[in-house]
Write a structure and sequence with these properties.
It comes from Herbaspirillum lusitanum. InterPro entries: THDP-binding (IPR029061), Transketolase-like_Pyr-bd (IPR005475). α2 runs parallel beside α4. The protein has one domain: Thiamin diphosphate (ThDP)-binding fold, Pyr/PP domains (Rossmann fold), CATH 3.40.50.970. The protein has a six-stranded parallel sheet with strand order 2-1-3-4-6-5, with helices on both faces. It has eight helices and six strands; from the N terminus they run αββαβαααβαβαβα. By secondary structure, the protein is of the alpha/beta class.
Length: 178
């Protein structure tokens, strides 16, 4: 099994659930390596957004509160940083702030940018997994180290019944290396 193939299989699995919607930059049009994993997702399930990460994370929370399962795609951790207020103060805390009255299950897909064969510089290769684990009280964060980690992580994120959101962290270099 290959890392990329497992990502593709996982996106197809998520797309089979009528509650899912895939949103972000380069989801309905090519532009990132992640785009290639969505090529068989029905076009009506792809919501292309402008570069407005805080808005995207706010939309993610709103859609989750409305009963959808948004798959919110931020191709790099560095881009997701722009949506941290919505992620930390809203998506992560909605259950706590409402004393369990509201659940907002979302899947946030992000990545550690590839460095090979070309290093894109430091604004594209950040890994903020451990920092986010310290800031989030309800969101689970899963880093995908090996191809065999991929499908179970996305399956868990979709099928979990505790109403928690999941951030899944991919490695860009592994798309072609593992």
């Amino acid at each position: 099994m290959k890392y990329f193939d497992e990502l593709k299989r996982s996106m197809d699995f998520l797309a089979a659930d009528p509650r899912t919607v895939f949103m972000g930059q380069a989801v309905a049009v090519p532009g990132t390596a992640m785009s290639n994993t969505l090529k068989d997702v029905p076009r009506e399930r792809l919501l292309e957004l402008p570069v407005a990460e805080e808005m995207q994370m706010g939309m993610t929370t709103g859609m989750a509160l409305a009963g959808a399962v948004p798959v919110s795609i931020f191709p790099r951790w560095n881009f997701l940083l722009c949506g941290m207020s919505q992620l930390i103060n809203h998506l992560d805390k909605i259950d706590v702030m409402s004393t369990g009255g509201y659940k907002a299950k979302a899947i946030v897909r992000t990545g550690i940018g590839s460095q090979r064969p070309l290093h894109p510089q430091h604004q594209h290769i950040g890994d903020y997994t451990e920092a986010l684990r310290m800031m989030c009280s309800t969101i689970e964060i899963i880093r995908l180290e090996e191809p065999e980690d991929v499908f179970p992580a996305y399956e868990r994120a979709l099928l979990r019944d505790d109403g928690r959101s999941t951030i899944i962290v991919e490695y860009g270099d592994y798309y072609g290396e593992k």
